[in-house]
Amino acid sequence: MGEAGSGMRQAVPAELSSFIGRERELTALASLLATERLVTLTGPAGIGKTRLAVRTVRTLTDRNGLDTVWADLATLPERRWADLEDELIDRLAGRGGTLLVLDGCEQLGEAGPGLAAQLLLRLPGLRILATSQRRLGLAGEAVLAVPPLSVPSAPAAQSLPSVPTVAPGAPGDGAADPARSFQVAEVAGYAAVRLFEERARGADPFFELTERNAGAVAALCRALDGIPGALELAAGRAHQYAPAQALRRLGSDPLTFLAGGAGRSTRVDAERSLRLASPAERLLWERLSVFAGSFDRTAAAEVCGFGALTPDTAGEALLALAPGLLADAGPGRYRLPLSVRAYAARRLAHGPAGDGPTTARRHRERCRVLAERAAQLWRSGAQQEARALAVRELPELRAAMNPLSAGGPGEALEIAVSLWFLWSACGMVAEGRRHLERALALHPAPRPARALWLAAWLVASFGESDGADPLLVEAWTEAVHEGEDGCLAYLAHVRGTIALWEDRYEDAAAEYRDGLELLTADPGFGPGREALRAAHTLAVAHTDPAAVPVEDGPPDAPADLWARSWVSYAHALVQRREGRPALARAELLRGLRTQFALGDQLGQAFSVELLAELEADQGRCAEAARLLGAVSRTRPRAASEPRAQRTVRARLTPEAFRAAYARGARTPLRELLPELLELPG
């Protein structure tokens, strides 16, 4: 059998393009090959297993004269498998210290592990390096999972940007806004960006990474999961599409965008790996395409374990497929790369009738239950746990909140309302408003009172109070019609918040009292009584400070730690007025610890503005201006100008104020407040 037919060659394949990144993996693989007889590189299609093997083996060959035989199993016809073991034995017999590379070992299916075991048994001096989307499962096997290339994280202001969604039967949900850009220096060092830039320049000699496109390139690298094969495809189209255009095309139709070049190679690799998989594994792979983000064994069983695939067999199939999935979301969690997920989604859509819709329905139901579970955790006082659950599952929840999916706007609104705390208390107001406004626009009349309340709250509390008026009127009408006393209470809370931001403290206190009178002990949704009491305490701190009891030490925290942080702010107001700045500062820092842990940007803004007043009281006006600059983008536009800002402007020259304010806007808040540096996260 000749080399062309067998896929074997004496020489290691040539490197046709530059090798970027993987420094850590190169070192780890070289170390394993020096001590282990069987090393397997695992990872999904397109991740760069073969490239890593080629570079490592070529380096070792140049350095140590390593004797290598390379077998490209992807080109080996199935009819030749039976002769492969004998041919390799003939080729390798008598050659001590040889390294055999079995590239694409998953192509042999169950025959792969048997072949490797026999070769190691019959040739004691042989070492094997296998690349495979599956572990061989042999005793003594050393496995090195090849991770994606490093990508820039999302800007802090984006608070977990949207990622492309390719759920069967639903259009894409868009991608991160490239206008929210990085500077070139912030992204240029990441391996995924370096790869994209170099390959794009090969396709378009005039391509450059600039301030205008750096954000789009970073978002594109994230959307493509840092997988080299997909990145090279996108970069190869640089002469057709600018990065921002490529990002939009990827978000709107990933299947078409990834249909050629490296994308076609990824599809072929994925289909080859499934050709010899069990029916359960192929079915699970297709059904997993409904997950927009990561999943664990329990999630896979809940969503995909029905019909011909039981929950138990779904869990077993996931363990078999796991080496070919991304495992960058934490222990026991996996993710389909977008470049693979698009093809799995197409197979699911064209599979047995009802299979795709049933999988999507089970996924939406899981998301509804998850959102309610997170809301229950928040109400019980486990607020950091609630936030962590919602953030971890956010890609799935986003997909379920698409009002154009089969669940419709009603189901989308139900999930969005359950996640009220994520939008308001955890600093993700802009995204929450998008979900609510899109679903409300498509919902037939009458629209649900709870969703109207939440939309009004987000608009009033974090945007323009005038824009909340039509929503407040409609929400009140529907709440009366539906008998939703909880909504009526929360609408009073919204009106009180508007009054508070406008410095109408008597009106705010009255509205908050009305809300507390209407709200039951356990309303079952929304902020709860602790939050309304905290708001009332804040209003009273302005109107009647003597009525606000102020503790000399840390009070017993209520179950609602978020509400406690606002009570700390109210107490700090009183402490400052009573001439106890040290105690006021301690209260503010106590509240800020919770606000940082939860991501409450609104709470941070007001707490820091009061800290700025304390600094100004002590004559530290430049420090106060820096603090004001640090939170200038997170306060509601409807709120009055901070008193500290008026004070500091009067005491500093315009030039000095602008310089200090701008410096604060460029400085992370924790650097301005050393007391916060020991906070978790």
Provide a brief overview of the structure.
The protein has 681 residues and is mostly helical.
What does this structure look like?
The protein is mainly alpha-helical. The protein folds into five domains: 143 residues, Rossmann fold; 102 residues, no CATH class; 88 residues, Arc Repressor Mutant, subunit A, CATH 1.10.10; 99 residues; 105 residues, no CATH class. The protein contains 34 helices and six strands. A six-stranded mixed beta sheet has the order 1-3-4-5-2-6. Helix 20 packs antiparallel against helix 22, helix 22 runs antiparallel to helix 23 and helix 23 runs parallel beside helix 25. The relative contact order is 0.06.
CATH fold annotation of the largest domain: Rossmann fold
| CATH architecture term of the largest domain | 3-Layer(aba) Sandwich
In terms of structural class, how would the helical and strand content be classed?
mainly alpha
- Give the overall average pLDDT: 86
In one word, what is the shape?
Answer: elongated
- Under CATH, the homologous superfamily of the largest domain reads P-loop containing nucleotide triphosphate hydrolases
The termini sit apart by: 60 Å
Poorly predicted runs of 5 or more residues: 1-5, 156-179
- Our estimate of the beta-strand percent is under 5%
Largest sheet: 6 strands, mixed
Count of helical segments?
34
